[in-house]
Amino acid sequence: MASFMADNSSSPSNSWPLDQFVQDPGYLAYQEELRCLIFNTAQTAAPSREASPTLGNYGPTDEELAAQAQTKTALASGRRLEYLKNYVAQVAPWLDMFDSNGAFTVQVPVLARSCPALLYAVLALSARQMERKEARQHSFDSLELYQEAIRLLNPLLQARDLTIIPICVILCCLEMMSASPQDWRRHLEGCAALFDSFDVNGFSGGLLQAVFWCYARMDLCETTAHQIFTPITQYISALKSVSSLLTELTMSSLGRTMVAILQLLKDDGYDSGTIFNLGWRTDRQK
Q1: Is 145 exposed, middle or buried (0-12, 13-18, 19+ CB in 10 A)?
Q2: Pick from 1, 46, 91, 266: most CB atoms within 10 A?
Q3: CA distance 223 to 216
Q4: For the whole model, what pTM was predicted?
Q5: At what angle do helices 164-178 and 25-42 cross, to 10 degrees?
Q6: How confident is the model at residue 208 (pLDDT cuts 50, 70, 90)?
């Protein structure tokens, strides 16, 4: 173990070298702006607004029609349609690793049709994934898309629209993909503050639950060097009994994964030995 720890070639920062993206002054400025906007929103006590309202008998509103027209225009430029296809085929399945319903693959693209900020976040992450995969060093479409996503995100943050949560987590994924492990903590703090402010946890249901567990995976990765930002009570709702928690875990495809996460949380000081013992026994009986 000691020899492995001493081998710097095994660290993520060496096996996945950084490029010029993170040194771009534009990226650094917008990253700091996003961080400030998120914390300002998290500290605001105003009520949140539901995302993607259900259409009534009268069809979409003028605002929704304008947003849909804006997303169509966005996809008509450059390689953006290619980035969207890459998101659905390559990126979304990775984000959906903890969600058997495929929220990032199915729900997010539908929601993005009427939410330009979400669309630009999706395109930015997909473009960044392709840039990293292709080892590009100087040309970054993702930077322009990232900046536009943040510009369009600002009004949603002010309105406390729930759509900001998937948008911010997707942008966090982009930042984590671009940063060294030593800097991951900075990118996770904002999302943790939003989850706390909007009372989103691992059992919120629907898209928000899927978004939470996507974030939780990054949060747990960060613990290899530092600490978990998300309070343990957000992983395991304090209102749930052991039996109801286990039922939810074992009835979903998250069973073994979630119990494994709980084991990690136990190592972090959470006394939940009964949950783990019952969880593994119940899971093996499936």
Answers
A1: buried
A2: 91
A3: 11
A4: 0.73
A5: 140
A6: very high
